Amino acid sequence: MLLNIVFILVGISLVLWGADRLTEGAVAVAEKLKMPQIVIGLTIVAMGTSMPEFCVSLVSALKGTPDLAVGNIVGSNIFNALLIVGVSAMVAPMAITRVTISKDIPFALVASIVLMIMCLDGHISRLDAATLFVMFIAFMYITLHGAKIGKTEQQEESSDIKTEKKPMSATMSAIWIIIGLACLIGGSNLFVEGATQVAAQLGVSEAVIGLTIVAGGTSLPELATSVVSARKGNSGIAIGNVLGSNVFNILAILGVTGLISPMTIKGITTTDLSVMVVSMILIWFFSFTRSTIERWEGVVLTAVFVAYMWWLL
């Protein structure tokens, strides 16, 4: 038990430090490429911080524990949308761009609804998984294609990119991103290993472990990265990271995992899936209020997350 607690503490420390390095590198990349922060957040940062979910879900499915695999994704998306956006908005109000309101949030919402529908029969087949993965490819094409068009919008967003130091070189940016991702993934794995062992000793079910302990652990990179980005005034990366991670979790991770190993789901309830969908609706609704998620709205999102955890446990 003592060793598991050490794993948890070391894991959290690595995640927090790695998030800071990743954010610095990602902002520098955004400046060098003259791309909107939201695109960097939706692609590089989102995929990097979703690697723990990918590893955990794939291994869980292959080991015959699909409830842990799907629970990890559903729980992570709830964690991302409610707690991460909530805490980030409480740290600093998050500005939402027009493109995010009209394209990125609706796409994340559609992905959540599609997953909910697929899970109603308690099974994710290879056909379901293939559908999810095709949707992911479409999302990436739309996002990267929009980056070219969005360069004209970069002049409006450039004021959002704040640097406290001299411009970082391309080499240094790449080094920070790699080191940051390595710390995020390594730290998350340590956290999940320790937390899962503790939960198992307490006799908690796979579904609940996936929805809480594992989801929280694998979402630590998103939490740390978004909070650090919000604190530094880079709200584009903060919100883009959450939306991109949610889309990546559902479409890419469950798409690839389901193609390799079709999953039968027993412990994930309609309530869990409904909370995932409602969380995205709340973000979309709040983003229409002056194109900003205010501090009080962050409090509401966090309160909904706490209420869901209370109900679950």
From TrEMBL:
Give a Pfam family name.
Na_Ca_ex
Spans through the membrane: 78-96, 105-124, 130-147, 168-192, 238-261, 273-289, 296-312
One record GO biological process = intracellular calcium ion homeostasis
The answer to whether keyword Nucleotide-binding applies is no
* Top-level taxon in the UniProt lineage: Bacteria
User: Where does it sit, as one GO cellular component term?
Assistant: plasma membrane
Does this UniProt record's set of keywords contain Plastid? no
Membrane topology value: Multi-pass membrane protein
Q: Where is the Sodium/calcium exchanger membrane region domain?
A: 5-143, 173-312
GO MF terms here are: calcium channel activity; calcium, potassium:sodium antiporter activity
Q: Which InterPro entries match?
A: K/Na/Ca-exchanger (IPR004481), NaCa_Exmemb (IPR004837), NCX_ion-bd_dom_sf (IPR044880)
Compartment list: Membrane
Print the keywords alphabetically: Membrane, Transmembrane, Transmembrane helix
Output the PANTHER family linked to this UniProt entry. Answer: INNER MEMBRANE PROTEIN YRBG, SODIUM/POTASSIUM/CALCIUM EXCHANGER
Kindly give the NCBIfam families that the UniProt entry links to this protein: calcium/sodium antiporter
Q: What is the protein name given in its UniProt record?
A: K+-dependent Na+/Ca+ exchanger
**Taxonomic lineage of this organism?**
Bacteria, Pseudomonadati, Bacteroidota, Bacteroidia, Bacteroidales
